[in-house]
């Protein structure tokens, strides 16, 4: 069987969420591995799977025990692919394989009846009825989860076993060693007959199971898809996500994101007793430039946008109050990932290689390109030219590009400009406290929201101020201030 | 009146049978215990697999375990083909051995069983719970040879030590080693509240911690380094408990003995008796110099069994062996070949 490579998340936020998903069965993990970004022409299919997710989310909202009922099945579901491969190859199944298949059929039937009762009726998930498999492997009236090569399968087996039992009780009663030994030899002969007959029965069961192999496999994959869907619903509920509204590719309509959250960063902040400031942004096709104070959350804003766009194309709900987005051919994120040194590249070299990848992608289609402080690692006079060029390139590429930068004077015709609101009250920050207090104070006074500004923007000059707040050595600050024009302080 | 072996195990839900060596008569003991109480659902499993069939080498029969109808057996799926009782497969355990996953089966007839179970304490403890859930009222663990028996001992609530001539042809040697090992198994529990309160303190490779008489940590060391013995000896004269997470080796003890005359101040504490890998001479010397040995988890040793016949055909006087081993031990000693422990005739199953 051709095995696909595991899906590699574009954004760290999605990588974190996928790792957090509660998936217990190997079938579920397979479904997760096969997760792919929806193609830009697959709007209808993506909407269908979002419809299904909506139904599951609504069902789970009304029923608190919803997930628990299925979780029991997924936790115990054995991966029976190996047994089915052997069966398909015409091998006689052994007892453990038959027990495994029976257990699987019982589990899937209980999952199926729960699913049928739930009234979800999802198009992508339908379970075949495995009742005949259960009956075949459970010739008794009472259904048990164990398996044995039952007397009922063969009259001959029944006779052999009766003879065996008779001998065993005779052995127990016999005192003479010689006679006992004779009886034991006789028993050994019967055991061998029993084994042969059991083999015949198991081979027969194997033949009768042949037509069910495809149904067993189908149910395994369906269970995996269902588990993944339930995991997506759990994420949607846990992080109060909304269904993304998707627009056809190439419509030129804006991407509008209102009050986006980033679950990973939110959780980190919550542990520190802080809260995440929701991010809102609107993007037209072309370039959007983002500026703002240091520590103003530009990177977080970009990561949050990229994460939600990726989630939408993976068929997840998004962490936002509302989210409208056209279908994209790609999602690209360039945010200093620290891989450059390992690859033998300087930071700048790595950025240029990523730039080439981005350009190649834009030649193949329209996507969302997010670049955090592009060209930061070279000198500012050249760096700003690189940013200017990338901005101009993306403006005419048909893709939606966002570039966060500290460089002044980037002018791109018709591009949109956003800025982090920044420090609320520059005078309210005391000096002289310990580092944690200073940081907390800084965060408390930072307004992380994005506002749209006109093209005649000035990159905020908050670096000096922030260095002061973070209590940099006064001697150093004196020297630093000498290099600022008097009116800028 | 003396109680029989099967009476001794009554009331214990999980009994490990550990052997001083292979061919110590473990299987004979197990066969004696299995099937003695038809009204009770018994179960059997083993630590790992005692797979080396000595009978192939010596030509003697290596006894197979013979289970009665209704017994639960936890064994590797790869060995089911070598079990000759009619059976019902109850379920999987998710514990994997080189011979396949351990499965739980119920015998629907009498027959020979080949048994391989999990080899770690954690898995064995979980398996015992599974067997109990499947209805087992009394579980026996074939506990492998002495040094590997830690997992059996830590997950059972009583144990039987099997010894015999296969361990050593000299009766004095058998007596000495068996008594030494039984003594180690019966070491008293360490009940120092100070330690229990302070919890387990062990960082990285440091698997030995030293406590003073107030229960304060007086030092930590890695027991595989000579510096550990030096650290212990450095406390000379001050009441000290050296608590070991893993094995207490001969090398470590020898270094302590070489460097310190009086050891009345020292208490050595290990998880259980199987972790003290000392010679009987070292154990005696420690005792003479006043050091005390304790265990965190005391073992309930119910009995010792002796097997007077070796695989090579050597035979000692069973009664004499039994009497000699029993001298100085305060647990009953049984001769596996004596009338009260009849051996089961050894016709091996015919394999298809």
Structure overview:
The complex is a heterodimer of chains A (489) and B (352). Chain A folds into three domains: 12-149 and 207-231, MutS, DNA mismatch repair protein, Chain A, domain 3, CATH 1.10.1420; 151-190; 242-488, P-loop containing nucleotide triphosphate hydrolases (Rossmann fold, 3-Layer(aba) Sandwich), CATH 3.40.50. Helices cover 51% and strands 12% of the residues of chain A. Chain A has helices at 12-20, 26-33, 43-62, 66-76, 81-88, 95-118, 131-137, 155-173, 177-209, 213-238, 263-271, 298-313, 347-364, 380-395, 435-445, 463-469, 474-482; strands at 245-247, 255-260, 279-283, 286-291, 322-326, 330-334, 367-372, 400-404, 416-423, 446-453. In chain A, the strands form two sheets. A six-stranded mixed beta sheet of chain A has the order 6-7-8-4-9-10, with helices on both faces. The longest helix of chain A has 33 residues, at 177-209. Chain A is elongated, with a radius of gyration of 33 Å. Chain A starts with 11 loop residues before the first helix and ends in a 7-residue tail after the last helix. The model of chain A has no long low-confidence stretch (mean pLDDT 88). Chain B has two domains: 5-169 and 300-335, 3-Layer(aba) Sandwich (Rossmann fold); 193-295, Cytidine Deaminase, domain 2, CATH 3.40.140.20. Chain B contains eleven helices and 16 strands. Chain B has helices spanning 5-8, 26-33, 54-58, 121-133, 150-155, 171-185, 193-198, 226-233, 250-259, 280-288, 318-326, and strands at residues 14-19, 42-46, 65-67, 72-76, 87-97, 100-107, 111-113, 138-145, 158-164, 208-212, 217-221, 240-244, 266-270, 292-295, 301-307, 333-335. In chain B, helix 6 (171-185) packs across helix 11. The longest helix of chain B has 15 residues, at 171-185. The chains are: A alpha/beta (489), B alpha/beta (352).
């Amino acid at each position: 069987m051709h095995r696909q490579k595991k899906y590699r998340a574009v954004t760290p936020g999605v990588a974190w969420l996928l790792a957090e998903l509660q998936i217990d069965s190997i079938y579920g993990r397979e479904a997760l591995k096969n997760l792919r970004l929806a193609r830009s022409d697959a709007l209808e299919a993506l909407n269908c799977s979002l419809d299904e997710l909506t139904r599951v989310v609504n069902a789970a909202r009304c029923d608190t025990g919803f997930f628990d009922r299925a979780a029991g099945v997924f936790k115990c579901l054995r991966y029976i692919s190996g047994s089915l491969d052997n069966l398909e190859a015409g091998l006689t199944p052994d007892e453990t394989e038959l027990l495994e298949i029976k257990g699987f059929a019982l589990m899937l039937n209980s999952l199926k009846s729960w699913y049928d009762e739930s009234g979800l009726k999802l198009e992508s998930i339908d379970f075949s009825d495995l009742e005949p498999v259960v009956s075949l492997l459970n010739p008794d009236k009472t259904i048990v989860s164990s398996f044995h090569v039952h007397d009922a399968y063969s009259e001959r087996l029944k006779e052999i076993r009766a003879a065996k039992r008779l001998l065993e009780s005779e052995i127990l009663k016999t005192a003479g060693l010689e006679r006992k030994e004779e009886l034991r030899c006789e028993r050994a002969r019967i055991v061998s007959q029993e084994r042969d007959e059991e083999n015949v029965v198991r081979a027969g069961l194997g033949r009768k199971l042949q037509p069910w192999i495809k149904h067993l496999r189908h149910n395994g994959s369906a269970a995996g898809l269902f588990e993944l869907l339930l995991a997506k619903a759990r994420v949607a509920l846990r992080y109060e996500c909304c269904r993304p509204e998707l627009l056809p590719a190439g419509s030129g309509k804006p991407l509008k994101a209102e009050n986006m959250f980033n679950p990973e960063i939110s959780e980190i902040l919550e542990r520190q007793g802080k809260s995440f400031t929701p991010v809102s942004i609107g993007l037209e096709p072309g370039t959007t430039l983002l500026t703002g104070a240091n520590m103003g959350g530009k990177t977080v804003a970009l990561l949050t946008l990229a994460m939600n766009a990726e989630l939408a194309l993976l068929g997840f709900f998004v962490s936002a109050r509302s989210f409208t987005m056209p279908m994209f051919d790609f999602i690209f994120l360039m945010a200093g990932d620290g891989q450059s040194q390992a690859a033998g590249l300087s930071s700048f070299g790595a950025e240029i290689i990523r730039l080439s990848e981005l350009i190649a992608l834009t030649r193949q289609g329209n996507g969302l390109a997010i670049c955090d402080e592009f060209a930061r690692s070279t000198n500012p006079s050249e760096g700003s030219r690189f940013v200017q060029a990338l901005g101009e390139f993306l403006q005419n590429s048909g893709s939606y590009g966002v570039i966060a930068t500290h460089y002044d004077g980037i002018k791109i015709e018709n591009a949109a400009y956003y800025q982090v609101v920044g420090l609320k009250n520059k005078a309210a920050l005391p000096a002289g406290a310990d580092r944690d207090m200073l940081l907390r104070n800084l965060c408390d006074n930072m307004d992380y929201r994005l506002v749209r500004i006109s093209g005649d923007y000035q990159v905020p000059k908050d670096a000096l101020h922030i260095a002061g707040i973070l209590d940099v050595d006064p001697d150093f600050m004196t020297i630093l201030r000498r290099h600022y024009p008097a009116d800028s302080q | 009146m003396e109680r029989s072996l099967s009476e001794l195990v009554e009331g214990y839900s999980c009994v490990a049978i550990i052997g001083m060596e292979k061919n110590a008569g473990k299987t004979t003991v197990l066969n004696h215990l299995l099937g003695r109480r038809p009204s009770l659902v018994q179960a059997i499993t083993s630590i790992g697999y005692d797979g080396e069939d000595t009978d192939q080498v010596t030509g003697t029969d290596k006894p197979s375990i013979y289970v009665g109808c209704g017994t639960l057996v936890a064994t590797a799926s790869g060995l089911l083909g070598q079990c000759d009782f009619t059976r019902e497969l109850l379920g999987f355990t998710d514990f994997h051995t080189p011979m396949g996953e351990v499965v739980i089966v119920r015998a629907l007839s009498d027959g020979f069983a080949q048994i391989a179970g999990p080899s770690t304490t954690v898995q064995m403890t979980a398996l015992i719970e599974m067997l109990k859930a499947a209805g087992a009222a009394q579980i026996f663990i074939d506990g492998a040879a002495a040094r590997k028996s830690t997992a059996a001992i830590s997950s059972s609530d009583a144990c039987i030590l099997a010894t015999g001539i296969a361990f050593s042809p000299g009766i004095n040697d058998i007596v000495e080693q068996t008594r030494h090992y039984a003594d180690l198994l019966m070491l008293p529990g360490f009940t120092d509240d100070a330690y229990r309160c302070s919890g387990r303190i062990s960082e990285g490779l440091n698997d030995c911690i030293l406590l003073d008489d107030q229960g304060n940590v007086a030092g930590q060391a890695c027991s595989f380094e000579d510096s550990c013995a030096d650290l212990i000896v450095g406390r000379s004269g001050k009441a000290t408990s050296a608590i070991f997470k893993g094995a207490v080796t001969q090398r470590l003890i020898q270094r302590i003995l070489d460097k310190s005359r009086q050891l009345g101040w020292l208490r050595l504490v290990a998880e259980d008796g199987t972790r003290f890998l000392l010679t009987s001479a070292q154990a005696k010397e420690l005792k003479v110099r006043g050091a005390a040995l304790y265990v965190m988890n005391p073992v309930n040793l119910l009995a010792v069994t002796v097997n007077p016949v070796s695989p090579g055909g050597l035979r000692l006087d069973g009664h004499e062996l039994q009497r000699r081993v029993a001298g100085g031990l305060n647990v009953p000693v049984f001769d596996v070949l004596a009338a009260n422990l009849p051996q089961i005739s050894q016709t091996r199953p015919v394999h298809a």
